[in-house]
Here is the input.
Amino acid sequence: MLQQYIRYFTYKVIEALDIGSVEMVNLHQNLLTPDFILIGLLEQEGSMISKLIETSYPENKNLSIQILEKLFADQENQAKFKGSTIQQIQLSAETEACFEIAQQESKKLDDKFIGLGSMFLALFDKRAGHVSDVLAEFGLSYSKVHEEFEIMRGGRNINEKDAEGKLDVLDQYTTDLTDLARRGDLDPVIGREKEIRRIIQILSRRKKNNPVLIGEPGVGKTVIVEGLAQRIVKAEVPNSLMNKRVKILEMSEVIAGAKMRGEFEERMKAVKDEIISAHGNIILFIDELHTIVSAGAGAGGVDASNMLKAALSKGQLQCIGATTLDEYKKHIETDKALARRFQPILVQEPSIEETISILNGLKPKYESHHSIAFQDETIEAAAKLSEKHITDRALPDKAVDLLDEAGSEKHLMLSHIPPVIRKLENRKNELIQKQKDFFADQKFQEVAHVRQEILELDNKIADEKSIWKSEISKVDTWVTPDDIAKVVATWTGIPVDKILETEAAKLTHMEDNLHKRVIGQNNAIVAVSNAIRRNRAGLKEKHKPIGAFLFLGPTGVGKTELAKALAEFLLDDENRLIRLDMSEYMEKHSISKIIGSPPGYVGYDEGGQLTEKVRRNPYTVILLDELEKAHPDVFNILLQLLDDGRLTDAHGRVT
Here is the structure.
């Protein structure tokens, strides 16, 4: 009887029916009912129906398991009632009705074969019997599941028996951002209206409708695409983008395990074909777009970019890219044919005010995660201190990381159980086990002794916990600007009092501190101290160095020692002094030692001796020893350092 229907089913439906039949035999039954069809649909490896249920009802993450348990419980009861005689497998009248309904569902969807979705939708019909009551009992409705199934299909039709196996390609190599947005798994996107509007504008073009976001790492390129996915879910986009899905291509997954020649190309072609067959309902997002240029090009293969060019040009495949300006110039701009298929959107670093707005939007998520609270001043401190002291990263990423780490540190402080309590609890568990062993051996006297020890331990644990809780009660549960400053100090090595600007008393006695190491030289110490105090009082231009001093005098009078004393006073560590012996810079070409070798020369990737040290320790004292021995061209490059407090290395990075 089943054979007459099999020719209409996809391979995935046949597989589900096989699983259901096995479970039926295991329960000593011979009548294939719709209950076993649903069991098979839910028990399939990587079950599409389970995903469909979870996506339709994200508030109940274990709904599929609950339905499965209910079906098994009902069938086990029936098996007990009916007995255990197994005869030839037969289809119930309800199952035959389900097959007829599934065929009607597939025709409505313009499918040539009955797929998993059509079969599942058929089970909602009252003619399916008991299984439809189970679905209704768990709150599943035909209309909601049907709507979600249409979105999941993305406009693709099942015109081959193995069509659903091909649909797995996208699930295997991509992540659905719109699905994550629908479940509320994405962080809120604050601002970036201009960039999102520009993406929508480019996506609405007829051809070459592929935007590429270009910006420094950490400015929020990926978040902008997440914002687009959230707008699609909220129906805040033009009709041309309604119900479209944004999928991230996981290039590492496509490449992983592709050992044989042509295997990578086969996977990329399968992904491309599935997106094209969705008739524009899928937007592909490629983070780190430059990776497609060389991906798969080894051993005579064709790289991913060449495989996508034709589809991108014709508008068959819509793609959003994201990459840095350097990588765009290096990999995309050099391939003119690829570059003309993308429309660049420059993503600038947000201002401090915009960063504060972004942090305020993210604040509830981080408060919930760490079980703490952030003061409003803390949000402002994270934005301002990260901008001021962390120079090698971009906003808002560095400010968000500051907030996250400060929250993590406060949470650990409040929740970390002292080692004393842990030891006592471990000892108690050992005694409980010993008590059980004595009881099993009927050594009741020893049981009484151990019980007494456990009672004494309970009292000790209670006392220690009382002390611990009283100490915790003194700890402020709010994350304050001081906590942010401590994290900045950990990252950069800048003393906390410098960050918090609480060093007024220390600066008042600066001369006394320096005189402890440098005896005499009163005029020089007073001049240096006054310059430092003026700077800390704010009487300076914003980007100038704290001070530039030229110490003159014969050998042995204390020039280098004063520099070390200054480093110890300002940084609490004389080893934070960066010392350059300028006698090593007597040649004209020695400029490359300071800022790094130019492109094409040996050592280009290593960076400069000075610029690299300052990048790693941005708050530091630089000693240019024996300055007069340096080449005149070296003096020219130091003018920029002395005047603006900045140097640009051979990579174009400003230090």
